[in-house]
Amino acid sequence: MSKLSRMIRKNGATSRPPNSWHAPSWFETRRQLSPTVGTAAELHRDRDQVERANPRQAAFLKEPATLEALAKDKIPIPATIDREGYCDDLHLGYWLSGVEDLRMVQRLVPQASFRHVLDFGGATGRFARHVVLTDESAKVTITDLNVNHVEWVERYFGPSVRAVKVSPYPYFPLADGTVTFCVGLSVFTHIDSYESGWLAEVHRVMADGAYALLTIHSEQTWNVLPAQAALLKKLQHNPEFAEAFGPGRPMPAGRHVYTWNPNSIEHNCNVFMDSTYIHERWSRWFEIVEIAHRAHKDFQAAVILRKKPGSV
What we know:
By secondary structure, the chain is of the alpha/beta class.
């Protein structure tokens, strides 16, 4: 008889286990979704939104392809709370940040096939919407920890973009060899204990010869941390980081996990790894095509991987 069964028999069938047994994760807590903030085209007509956009991203608004995507995109933009705070109230900037990521993928992985894209940690489709806007035949599966992100995608996107809830433990509910491209933006920057398990899962679901783009905090990220005030402030709460980091001091070799929420196994840390570590460890699963430093958000590196045909 289980411990729970013995407790129920002793205390009565209506008794509940103590709350200390399980503290519900915020990723598991369902809440009412907030009203959307309009379509990209509507936001483009808002002068304040245009003027406040990041100048680098606003430059895309001069491109015919971006203006065409603006007109085509009928999926509303999620409220700030429904996109994990991305871009605060810069709603057009949120949409443009997805354009920027698509351009990065097209530049770094021109061979990528969008027939079936796995958007690992894709939240409410910031990147996914641009995949299907640029390739009408594309299919995207978003996987995310947050049950509310999954609900948002299922409510607002059409059949070309679907979402599935995953746990912190490595598993994608996808068949072997069915993904033609995998993207994971700011995901492996927060995975502490299960890195190899998630690499194995990405490898399993990818088709032979398929590519992946996964971003990391690299040694180049370490070097530009003084310009990343929000990230640096969070990291300085970790005593190991505070001891290792200083002006002109190189990042310690290898892989380092700096935890800032020790009471959770979900999204509780920032992870740094150098290029030597990537070549030594990740090459056990993939061919390392390139490590493009400062390719994402101006401070993360983009690791381009290829699944070797016939690899197991």
